[in-house]
Amino acid sequence: MVRDISCQEVAGLIKTSAPLTLVDVREDWEVEICAIDGALHIPLGDIARRLDEIGTDKPVAVLCHHGVRSRHAAMFLAAQGVKDVFNIAGGIEKWAIDIAPEMSRYE
What we know:
The chain has one domain: Rhodanese-like domain (Oxidized Rhodanese, domain 1), CATH 3.40.250. The protein has a five-stranded parallel β-sheet with strand order 1-5-4-2-3. It is globular, with a radius of gyration of 13 Å. Helices cover 33% and strands 16% of the residues. The protein is an alpha/beta fold. It contains four helices and five strands, in the order E-H-E-H-E-E-H-E-H.
């Protein structure tokens, strides 16, 4: 089951160094504009092929621009047996608004 997690919750986990794998499923050109430090970049189209790069020993939070692609990726990961998988609600757009207002944004 995929659950949504807020940007604030993810930011809090990152600040406390809680074990979390952050997976960014946006395209290369999107990540060039803005990204969260420490995120594992695997474009959505590559997620099945690169599944072994995503550890299952800690929760996985998936991110895209607005939360649609990341929900699909999170559902795929859950179907592959990843137990603690979350979709970051609002994506990097919401992250830029709520957490990092200095971050570049795009349409």
